[in-house]
Specification:
By secondary structure, this protein is mainly α. About 95% of the residues lie in helices and about 0% in strands. The longest helix is centred in the middle third of the chain and has 72 residues, at about 45-115. It is rod-shaped and about 120 Å long. The N and C termini lie far apart (about 175 Å). Keywords: Coiled coil.
């Protein structure tokens, strides 16, 4: 009899415990549902939707701006490296031209000095001296044009680093300046071949004749 009473009491306790637990669980679920509904209602409101759209729009804008900045930076670095390579190349070319022209002028001046000391003079000498002055002027113009070219190349690198670069226009300016450089070197080359060397050859012939005659006269006097 005691066992029956014990088991009956235990059974009632278990049933009561589960009943209370179920009620607590149900109450918790109800609170969770109400919270979710309230959050859904808040999100579904026009002001909340507008705020979300604004945030999303700003995030997209930030990503686009970051990408633009990255593209600009990459382009800037690439163009700068290319420009530095071209500047170095053109500096080497300019130095070769300068050395060539300088040697021509110095060698010619040395020959003229020797011929003058030997007693050679006349119109041919004056013509060659004038040619040297003309050549020096054209070389000076050539050097200034090269400085302009190097400055244009440097400006091209600065244009590439801008937000709205007009690279096409910058490249056209470089091509125009290169065209000027080519014209200058062609003019100097043609002048040396068609005028300077012709006058120098005439001077040699005249001086050879003058020096030979002078030598003959000196021998006759002796």
């Amino acid at each position: 009899m005691k066992n029956i009473f014990f088991y009956s009491t235990l059974l009632l306790t278990i049933v009561f415990t589960y009943s209370v637990s179920d009620k607590a669980y149900a109450l918790s679920n109800a609170n969770t549902v109400r919270t979710n509904i309230r959050q859904t209602v808040e999100i579904s409101s026009p002001s909340a939707q507008a705020q979300i759209k604004l945030q999303n729009s700003q995030e997209v804008k930030d990503k686009i701006q970051a990408r633009k900045s990255e593209i600009t930076q990459n382009r800037c670095e690439r163009v700068n490296q290319n420009v530095q390579n071209r500047i170095q190349l053109h500096q080497q070319i300019r130095e070769r031209y300068q050395k060539t022209y300088q040697n021509i002028v110095q060698n010619t001046q040395a020959k003229i000095t020797a011929l003058q000391e030997a007693g050679c003079n006349g119109e041919e000498m004056d013509a060659v001296l004038q040619d040297i002055t003309t050549l020096q002027f054209r070389v000076s113009t050539f050097e200034k044009a090269y400085e302009t070219l190097l400055a244009t190349l440097d400006q091209n690198s600065q244009v590439a680093c801008g937000d709205n670069p007009n690279i096409g226009q910058a490249q056209q300016e470089i091509r125009n300046q290169l065209k000027v450089m080519k014209e200058n070197t062609t003019e100097i080359k043609n002048f040396i071949q068609s005028t300077f060397r012709v006058h120098l050859q005439s001077l040699r012939q005249v001086c050879y004749t003058q020096i030979s005659e002078q030598s003959t006269n000196d021998n006759t006097k002796e």
